[in-house]
What we know:
With 143 residues, the protein is α+β, with helices and mostly antiparallel strands. The protein has two domains: 3-68, VC0802-like, CATH 3.30.2130.10; 70-142, ACT domain (Alpha-Beta Plaits). The chain has five helices and seven strands, in the order βαββαβαββαβα. The chain has helices spanning 16-26, 52-59, 81-91, 119-128, 136-142; strands spanning 3-11, 31-38, 42-49, 64-76, 96-103, 109-116, 133-134. 24% of the residues are buried.
Amino acid sequence: MAITQLSVFLENKPGKLAETVKRISEAGVNIRAMSLADTKDFGILRLIVSDVAATKALLTEQAIVTETEVVAVRMDDQAGALYRILKVLDGAQINVEYLYAFTGTKSDSAYVVLRVDNADAAEKLLAESGVATLSDSELKALL
């Protein structure tokens, strides 16, 4: 049930991010969540989008684009919610490589995207702990 994230390697130069977002927007693709990490020479733009195939085809013309399975988790929008999720994963020695969060249309819900070293095990463990994970289609329906 993991969701697909695109990672786009961009030159770390003025206008590259704006150009990339413009191309996605002009293609009618909705960016559902994103994260940008940088180094001196390049940035890694991580995206959850409404149309993975179209976005990947579009961006492959200008940059290296990879697909990664990540786990999207619904959590209460309150203090301590993320800690409870991380505690479950930590207890099973599942490493979180990175994460980013976003809120949805419901005022009491927030979502976190987790890149873990074992997505299948993480999803199973979270489900057993009563934590709701999302599929691509469930995520699209929410936002």
